[in-house]
Amino acid sequence: MLAEVLQVSCKKRIGKDDFIASIRKTLQAHYKDKSVGRFTLMFKALGGTFLLKESKAKQHIMPEFSKVPLNSDEDVENWLRFYDMSPPLIAVGTLVSHDPGLDLRVQHFHSFSHHGEGGHYHNDTQPDIAEYLGYFALGEFIYRLDKPSETHLIGRD
Q1: What is the DSSP string of 41-97?
Q2: pLDDT over 90 (residue 3)
Q3: pLDDT tens by residue, 43-91
Q4: Which SUPFAM superfamilies is this protein grouped with (predicted)?
Q5: What is the CATH number of the domain that holds 99?
Q6: Per residue in 109-126, is it b (16+ CB within 10 Å) or e — as a string?
Q7: What does the mean pLDDT of the chain come to?
Q8: Domains in the chain, number
Q9: The pTM is what?
Q10: Is 29 strand, coil or helix?
Q11: Which residues touch 32 (CB under 8 Å, ≥6 apart)?
Q12: Lower Cβ count inside 10 Å, N or C end of the chain?
């Protein structure tokens, strides 16, 4: 069985949103509060990979677990260690157009490279030269295991 794949190729970031947030927000604007859909099948998530061909990227590598509670986005930002990493970077992860009430991260991508750099992708840092090529498969279902009884939005980008 052949799977349909969404290919996204772009150059030069013109807005503040990162590559993945741009895709996610475009889907959300089109489909509103519905799960991402096509024809008669309902898709709820995209998973895939992208190549950041040009531009450095702001990424973090998580340090040792914090010994103190992280109670705000500012606490998380101060705890994480951010780096400007060189292209090419290959990233894998998932995104959803919106959280359908399952306490999901709406996007989460990690990268690696053949030159020893990688981490959690946040954004390119050179928008005028940024170039991306991504391939995303459409998921039919989301399975949420161990949904927390209490939650928060701290540290979700």
Answers
A1: EE--EEEEEEEEEES-EEEEE--SPPSS---SHHHHHHHSEEEEEPSPEEEEEEE-S
A2: no
A3: 457 899 999 999 999 999 989 999 999 999 999 999 999 999 999 999 9
A4: AF0104/ALDC/Ptd012-like (SSF117856)
A5: 3.30.1330.80
A6: bebebeeebbbbbbbbee
A7: 88
A8: 1
A9: 0.87
A10: helix
A11: none
A12: N
Spatial contact of 10 and 134, defined as CB atoms under 8 Å apart: no
Establish whether the linkage from the previous residue to 88 is cis, with ω within 30° of 0: yes
Domain carrying residue 56: 5-139
Q: What is the DSSP letter of 34?
A: S
Q: Indicate whether 78 belongs to any domain.
A: yes
Pairwise CA distance, residues 127 & 14, whole Å: 7
Residue 12 lies in a domain: yes
